[in-house]
Queue: 2 jobs
Job 1
Amino acid sequence: MTKVSMRVNGKAVTAEVEGRTLLVEALRGPLGLTGTHVGCDTSQCGACVVHVDGKAVKACTMFAAEAEGAEVTTIEGMANADGSLGVIQQAFQDHHGLQCGFCTPGMVMSAAALLKDNPKPSEAEIRHYLEGNICRCTGYHNIVKAIQAASGQDVAIAAE
Amino acid sequence: MYAFDLERPTTLADAIAALKGEDAQALGGGQTLIPTLKQRLAMPAKLVSLAGVDEIKGICRNDAGRLCVGGGTTHGEIAAQSDYPALAALAGRIGDPAVRNRGTIGGSVANNDPSACYPAACLASGATIVTDRGEYAADDFFQGMFTTSLAEGEIVTEVRFPIPEAANYQKFAQPASRFPLVGVFVARFADGVRVAVTGASEGGVFRWSEAETALSSDFSVGALEGLSASAEGLITDLHGSADYRAHLIKVLTGRAVTAAA
């Protein structure tokens, strides 16, 4: 076991991990942050997306020890300081961007990464960016709408 | 996953030393190796993460005008450079954004997956693969499915790309994995055209020399008329037959020429 220290959602934390401990296992286990989900465990579904030093990564495909010294943001860090929903989270609620909610943590984290690089993405850019996030409920339309809304753009998708 | 020790060196010298141990294996971005470990298809005693070795990261132009890409540079960073647009476009279509933020070019060329995209770019560009022990021409480096010239513990530190006058990569993506069912990279240099094909052959990435000859004298789709890629040695699996892949090689070569011209 080795000790890994990082900042998660702005707070300095430490966890005892094995070499093989995945970042998502450290987050959900010793750190108790169960908002990050494991959908497939094969790097395909994107439910485990978190930000490491500002970049979206699949927390099931990175070792916890590799996050030593890193700044990690999870879905728990996306709410406003007063506990109310952040802009992207609120847009997902307003536009019914979730049904069962399992993929939502990863969707919100990917959306946040996209909007940081590209504040006004087109519908096509949003869909392309979400290639690594799978949702089995919504058919994606309302997720795309929610991200358009969160970016301050008109929500307009032809196929309703 | 079986248990292993994970080391995180911060210098190339320390990484080389750490890899001297028995059953030690280098870990690039881990986007292939970690899933492989989960399936227990690999059982290293020690993994040496290269993610903290800054000296093998980054992109620059050298005195000869080549694009020098550090082995630890991610697909996302390569997609963002503008010196070699065809290479940027290729990198920007690997996996998905989160995968591109971790996966590295060094890891990809060292693995030499028969359906990986970078080997086609390296071979078509006539790139040089630089390691901690020497340099290899791409023509010598890729030796077949998952096989390269690398020795145990050898680290890809840099890939040097001559920048073509015109180039394009066409990938016919397998929709589930997004790996190319067939991918073709066409690069036109002052002294001739190089065409490299990935995803198609049992022997890994290869050059389609008949198309190179035809395109070197006439860089147009018309030059490919009358040519057909041989299906011999090509992959047949549930996604497509060898004949289908051979057909795709010609179609994608044509599309690449049109896009590059």
Job 2
Amino acid sequence: MADLQGLTQLFAHEMAARLRSGETTAREIAEAHLARAHATDHGLHAWLTIDDERALAEADAADATLAGARAEGPDALAALHPLHGMPVALKDLVSVKGGQCTAGSRILEGYRAPYDAHITERLRAVGVVILGKTNMDEFAMGSSCEHSAFGPTANPWDLERVPGGSSGGSAASVAAFQTPLSIGTDTGGSIRQPAALCGIVGMKPTYGRVSRYGIVAFASSLDQIGPFARDVRDAAALLHAVSGRDERDSTSAPEPVAEDLVNLPASDDEAASWLRGKRFGVPREYFVEGMEPGVAAAIRTAVADLERAGATVEEVSLPHTDYGLASYYIVAPAEASANLARYDGVRFGHAVTDGADYLADYLVTRGSGFGPEVKRRVMLGTYALSAGYYDAFYLKALKVRTLIKRDFDVLFDAGFDALVGPTSPDVAFRFGAKLADPVKMYLSDACTLPVNMAGLPGISIPCGLSEGLPVGLQLIGPAWSEGVLMRAARAYEGVTASADWRRVRPHDLAKLAGAGLPTPAERIASR
Amino acid sequence: MASLTRADVEHVAYLARLGLAEAELARLEGQLNHILDQYAKLAELDTDAIPPTAQTIELENILRDDVARPSLPAEDVLANAPHRDGEFFVVPAILGGE
């Protein structure tokens, strides 16, 4: 397989340096990643669409812009975004005009987006090259990618295990060196949990940080878009590229974007020195019952590393954490049931006409177009919002949401720079392990969904291995603290730069390059 | 807290416009009740004096100027139509009679 030691093994900031020095071109970079994605994806199934033609045209355009800037002089060159010419994968719920956008659902199979999402426009404007679209749990509902209507994605660390979800394809593609960067969405943990399970960096920004115009909606008071990358500097640069106000999403906020995001220190020592005098809280409730001991141990070690680098760490309490799951699983399905009402088989998407009447058409279209998890959530949401239950369920959940948010406010008002804890209570689990019991699957997100309920930013970064599989460290900050969180995460990278676990690559990368590998769905079926 | 009977499940499926098979209804009855059991935990909290949070970032209404601008071309919108007739989406008759 092409390019095993070449471009695809680099961080985007390393490739960007080579691009600017003229050692390589955006086209070569795109070609190397497309070739690797094609060659390694059969057994991984991270992608739903790879669009070579579009990607290469965008790469050529990026090369032309770069040539123009070079001719113009150093100022024009410096004005190019740090990610100019770098490849990205988009979760398959981001609209790219003319391209298929399925949200992992049969009901949108064959649907072609009539316009670009805001972030698609932004990425194009800064010269980022879109390689294609990645697999996901249907309508972003799930924590394992097993709820994709197009078959699950595997984890490059162990092909018998899930990559996490819902943005499982985006995380797996980055971990498998098919792309240095990808975009996901996070409604209850759908960026941070797969980042943790795949051993990469993933951030859910503050609610309102990134415009969701052109993104398939799941739960509108919770959904947020964010970046995946193999290091913090790349993730920060990608967040920078997509952040900011867009009047077409009225919830996107007019808050300034931290310019810090593109100026994180390259030096590990300089990055680590930022920690001196910083104050972190470790929520005791995040060490949940049933947590894997190896995960708890890795988190404790990470906390000790932060302390050794000069930070103050105190145990703190988020007393309403335990109510996060129940309140989230009212709010999110309620909003989903409303958002998914639009899939009616009239204007777009899967449609079954049995000829009887419009009602029969709705029933059969939606009944055959949605998968089991989506049906479950639409049912839950419809029930929670139905006459006589609104106060008992939805209103109650919104009040509990206030309590959850206040827990965080109290700590940040008391001067904590960030909270530190696990992203997920366990490492990547085996296919099928949590499919039979929806509540067990929902518990994967016990430490991430309170952050969505409170609208706060959170990042997951690799912090070691438990039984050979990656563990994610979650950092949570006050609203609009993305710059600080990225600095803190970069500092942790600096502190642990020489740790042994940083040198361990996903175990099954070599297998992926082999011929005749079954797809994850085939592998599961043959068990 | 409330629990769902089979008839409730069928009613909610109807409200949600989901046509479900017998086996799906049976499975959902069990799963939904299991999930509803988790909701019972919320009753532990006295929330009478707590205001609801529907939106977390305390944005005030943001208004933009009401300026006419081009919308998508009809052809682009109709391109995804499962059933179309010229410039129209085709749907079954909603009012009775031919």
